[in-house]
Write a structure and sequence with these properties.
The complex is a heterotrimer of chains A (346), B (289) and C (424). By secondary structure, chain A is an all-alpha fold. Chain A has 15 helices and four strands. In chain A, strand 3 and strand 4 (330-332) form a beta hairpin. The interface between B and C is large, with 43 and 43 residues.
Chain lengths: 346, 289, 424
């Protein structure tokens, strides 16, 4: 009894110390809670469908950021992982009859394999060369998909995949929970020792090498991790849409992912998630002006890049939080002194 | 058979060369990866279509007009959207993607998804070495070669060309030497897009116009530029012929797999990159300080 | 700065509430959702055909349901299926759960329709397909009748019959060529865009053409959006082909016809070329697509008493000839007539009535078979073969086929340069 109370008190202190102090973390908490309790207010299937897709794409965008934002390996063919996992999941489910609990992780492993295959040639490339090469991979795979229509269904794709869960509400909770959990995991990865090394590789690879770290291994690790998470998103997509087709490998999808992530803010896992949550429903909302839809979307992106080149969330964060000059901890902007080291915040 | 391959390869290669050289130029000089490059090419084609169909201007007049208009437009876009964020390379890349999408959507709104065409400048065909080639294709080849020679002359023989090449080699030192780096970048953008617009003008009577026609040339052009080495004119030039011949070879030797020509070209690119990461003629950049 | 943010976010909130609070209209009307790629000609065809039908029906007082007369209200839903599959599924969801449409017509891209069909069946909404021709769609009706019985298909003819007509046209041209030009054995070059719907056609052609007394000299598979097929055309010419058997559904159809006409390749072009069905084909190929023969659904001939009327009305109102997606015209009429007959809007009551449809529509006599697919055959829907002859798209088949000729059809013409090439 006393032990449980102890844990509760510990959790509360942690909560007060870590979450309540920063408006950005409060916002994340409120966001997560509101997502989870939404079905209590409305169970409109249209709204839930949009949110489910948003969750799936949020996982995808966050996985991109893990690779390209943190490790600096600009990946313009992220749709490859998504598509490979979607197809693997589809084939495993349809031909072998595996239920979603198995087919999705196995499909994600397929994407990890793809990640290795892509990562190895890309080890020696840098910057723009890397971006353009990664662009090529989904296109080559697309050619392959059309070349073996008996296995992949050609341009019709594979359809008739089993549902994710038996109800729309179930789907919603599965995807929301997965999004929150995986997002948190990805965020923790970036905060861990491995994550710091990845970040360092982005800043100055030569220095990291000089410190005795095997950058090749870490770069491949980044590709595989990113591939895994993107693969989960791909598997979820295949089971939710009940079809996996060449549209999962399109160049346009890769570009979309980049746009979402950059709009929301690169080099932060929550940035792309926020980006997807703002842009995807917005695109759907703009359905009312079908002709102007994509145009408005593209213009919004251009404006963001002009005025908030770091992304939306970092820009907002700049406004509501300040960094302490001495201990580099973030504080609420309204504070006069740092909460940890009591240095003056100007 | 061989004649087919050679002639078709030459024609396709020249058109790709025009696109690739422009792209390479703007990357080499201003370090801008302009994804909207082929979108401008498409825009020029549509401007000519509009001029011909709605304003009744003869294509001979519409083409130079389109080139100038699109070139000016690109400079305006550069000033408004790209110049302010030139320091963040990633942001520039995405800004050009967004720009390309804006152009595509604007054209979709204006013309719908319909397929449009412009009649050829010269009709009929000629038989060269037993191969039937349309006269328009020959004209296209001739103009493309002229343009390439003109671009080479501009780069090698004029002071402006000297400034461009100098800036491409080392931005800061060129600035020190009195070449206004910002101006040079702007001019390069204009010239490179004008080259793309010229490619569009040549291609308009040959191809079908639709708002998505910029995607495939974009991919081929990226493959060519990466293969030849980013920033290297010579590399782009040779790379475009290599990949164009690869495409034509696939069509002839593997008629069942003609749709694979894009994939084959890209695979070649990746193979070369595995062996030589900076492309055939590229310069291995030091990290920019 | 802060105040502006507050105002902006309030505006955004209002907008969001407006969207999600948007509820369907009340009042007694019949809501038919027209779903298709509205930015493209196929979706426009869907919308136009349905509009024409709805206006005509409403002008006559609406649909009689029991002792009431209800107007038809069309709801345009853009599936954007060419660009984005999630968009298409969102669109169907929107139509059924938010707009609460009673029925759906339209659909085009098979990959998307397969998924849209599922969502409609989940909601027990009657969905009449007007665009996708894959046999799998109606195959599902056979496999799981209770779930898929709400699905019907009105146009175009099923791809199995499409292939049949395709070969009938090929045979017709081959016979004319053999007779007019004294060619003992006709050589055929198969050119089909790289798409799954063409694979069976290519396979069947390779097997059956030798049995029909013809020789297959090569198979070419360009990309559906290829911008240059001169390489393929050169190769076809070197192979000595007399006929080019085409299967195109996308822009390659225009590119091919344009370059074929420009190079004056000595082979007749016959087969499926969806772009050649449209009015804009002539201008898009700058007239070089002359003499292209393709399967079509509508032509300005007397397929039934309704056809020419429909054709002219459509052309007058929308300034272009109807394409097969305008089959929504017949679909809306079928729904209206079934509702009147059943005296109810209930889908379960309507399905058996629709199954017994026997409508003299614009594309032919529409009767559904056991799998809810449109029946093919002389006296039913046969589709037509149209050939561009000097700026006009003329119906050249059926012309003395099994004793059937639609009034207004003309004989097929061989391209003059083909004739002069072989008459030497």
């Amino acid at each position: 009894m006393g032990l449980i109370a102890y844990y509760f008190r510990k959790a509360y202190t942690l909560f007060k110390g870590e979450v309540l102090v920063l408006p950005s973390r409060m916002a994340v908490l409120i966001f997560a809670i509101s997502l989870l309790v939404l079905p209590l207010f409305t169970q409109d299937s249209y709204l839930l469908r949009i949110l489910i897709l948003t969750n799936i794409f949020a996982i995808l965008a966050a996985s991109w950021d893990l690779l390209s934002g943190f490790t600096g390996q600009m990946n313009f063919g992220h749709a490859l992982f998504f598509g490979v996992a979607a197809y693997c999941t589809a084939i495993l489910n349809l031909r072998l009859g595996l239920p979603p609990w198995f087919s999705i992780p196995l499909g994600a492993m397929g994407a990890v394999l793809a990640g290795l295959i892509v990562g190895i040639p890309c080890l020696r490339l840098r910057g723009t060369y890397l971006a353009l090469t990664t662009l090529a991979f989904p296109i080559i795979l697309l050619g392959l998909v059309f070349a073996i229509p008996d296995v992949t269904g050609g341009e019709l794709g594979i359809s008739g995949i089993k549902r994710l869960t038996s109800s729309r509400l179930g789907d919603y909770y599965v995807t929301t929970l997965l999004m929150l959990i995986l997002g948190f995991v990805m965020w923790k990865i970036t905060d861990s020792k491995k994550g710091i090394i990845l970040h360092a590789i982005r800043e100055d690879e030569v220095a990291v090498r000089a410190s005795g770290i095997n950058t090749t291994r870490y770069k491949l690790l980044a590709f595989c991790l990113s591939g895994f998470f993107a693969g989960i998103a791909g598997g979820l997509y295949a089971h939710f849409m009940r079809t996996a087709g060449p549209s999962t490998l399109e160049v346009a999808l890769s570009f979309q992912i980049v746009i979402w992530a950059v709009f929301g803010g690169m080099v932060s896992i929550y940035g792309p998630v926020a980006g997807v949550f703002i842009l995807f429903p917005l695109l759907e909302f703009l359905r009312f002006m079908p002709k102007m839809r994509m145009l408005a979307f593209a213009i919004i992106v251009l404006m963001t890049l002009l005025y908030m080149p770091q992304g939306l969330i970092p820009w907002i964060r700049e406004k509501i939080e300040k960094e302490c000059p001495r201990c580099k901890i973030r504080n609420v902007a309204t504070r006069k002194t740092c909460r940890i080291c009591t240095a003056e915040l100007d | 058979m061989i004649q087919n391959i050679i002639i078709n390869g030459l024609i396709n290669g020249s058109i790709y060369a025009l696109l690739a050289i422009g792209f390479s130029l703007v990357f080499g000089v201003a370090r801008i990866v302009n994804i909207a490059h082929t979108a401008f090419y498409m825009l020029a084609a549509y401007v000519i279509y509009v001029g011909f169909h709605y304003l009744g201007i003869s294509p001979y007049v519409a083409m130079p007009l389109a080139i100038i208009i699109v070139g000016l437009l690109s400079v305006v876009c550069y000033k408004l959207f790209i110049n302010p964020i030139r320091e963040h390379e990633a942001a520039v890349l995405i800004a050009t993607i967004a720009l390309a999408m804006v152009i595509q959507e604007a054209l979709l709104i204006g013309f719908g998804g319909h397929y449009l065409g412009v009649p050829p400048l010269v009709s009929g065909y000629s038989t060269i070495a037993g191969v039937k080639v349309t006269n328009q294709h020959l004209l296209a080849l001739g103009v493309a070669i002229l343009a390439l020679v003109g671009a080479w002359a501009l780069l090698m023989k004029t002071r402006l060309g000297l400034a461009l090449r100098a800036t491409a080699q080392d931005r800061e030192v060129a600035n020190l030497m009195g070449m206004n780096e910002a101006r040079v970048a702007m001019l390069t953008m204009g010239i490179s897009v004008m080259l793309a617009a010229l490619a569009g003008a040549i291609v308009v009577p040959l191809f079908v116009l639709d708002p998505h026609m910029w995607m495939h040339p974009l991919i081929m052009m990226l493959a060519i530029v990466v293969l030849g080495g980013l920033g290297s004119m010579k590399g782009s030039f040779i790379g475009s012929y290599i990949l164009a011949f690869a495409e034509v070879l696939v069509v002839f030797l593997l008629p069942m797999g003609a749709y694979l020509k894009g994939s084959v070209a890209l695979s070649i690119m990746i193979l070369v990159l595995l062996i030589r990461p900076e492309g055939l003629f590229g310069v291995a950049f030091e990290e920019e300080r | 700065m802060k105040k502006r943010n507050v105002v902006l976010s309030m505006l955004l909130a209002i907008c969001l509430v407006a969207t999600f609070g948007f509820s369907a209209w009340g009042g007694e009307v019949i809501k038919i959702g027209v779903i298709g790629p509205m930015q493209f000609t196929q979706g426009e065809g869907h919308w136009n055909g349905a509009t024409l039908a709805a206006e005509e029906i409403n002008a006559k007082g609406g649909v009689q349901v029991g002792d009431k007369n209800l107007p038809i209200v069309l709801i345009k839903v853009d599936s954007n299926e060419f660009v984005s599959l999630p968009d298409a599924t969102n669109a169907v969801e929107l139509a059924t759960s938010r707009y609460k449409v009673n029925y759906l017509v339209g659909g085009f891209r098979t990959e998307a329709v397969l998924v849209m069909q599922d969502i409609a069946m989940d909601n027990k909404t009657i969905f009449i397909g007007c665009g996708a021709a894959h046999p799998k769609l109606c195959g599902k009706v056979k496999a799981d009748y209770d779930r898929y019985k709400y699905w019907f298909r009105v146009t175009p003819i099923n791809s199995r019959f499409l292939v049949k007509v395709d070969f009938i046209l090929l045979g017709m041209v081959a016979k004319i060529m053999a007779k007019q030009l004294n060619i003992p054995k006709i050589k055929v070059a198969i050119v089909a865009e790289k798409a799954v719907w063409c694979d069976p056609i290519v396979g069947i052609a390779e097997k059956n053409l030798p049995k029909m007394g013809m020789e297959v000299v090569g198979v070419w598979r360009p990309s559906p959006v290829a911008t240059d097929v001169t390489a393929e055309l050169s190769a076809i010419q070197s192979s000595g082909a007399h006929i080019v058997f085409t299967s195109f559904s996308s822009s390659v159809g225009i590119t091919f016809a344009k370059q074929w006409g420009e190079l004056k390749v000595p082979a007749a072009a016959v087969g499926i070329n969806v772009e050649a069905q449209k009015d804009g084909f002539w201008a898009a190929t700058s007239g070089k697509g002359n003499y292209t023969l393709t399967i079509n659904t509508y032509g300005r001939v007397k397929i039934t008493d309704q056809t020419i009327d429909f054709f002219d009305k459509y052309r007058k109102k929308f300034k272009e000839a109807p394409n097969y997606t305008a089959g929504t015209y017949d679909a809306v009429y079928i729904l209206a007539e079934a509702i009147t007959k059943a005296g109810s809007l209930n889908p379960d009551k309507l399905v058996p009535v629709i199954e017994k449809t026997d409508r003299t529509g614009a594309s032919g006599r529409i009767v559904f078979d056991q799998t809810h697919d449109v029946t093919w055959g002389p006296g039913y829907v046969t589709s037509v073969g149209t050939q561009w002859q000097n700026g006009k798209n003329m119906v050249v088949w059926p012309y003395n086929w099994k004793g059937l000729t639609y009034e207004g059809a003309v004989p097929y013409l061989l391209p003059p340069w083909v004739v002069s090439h072989y008459k030497k």
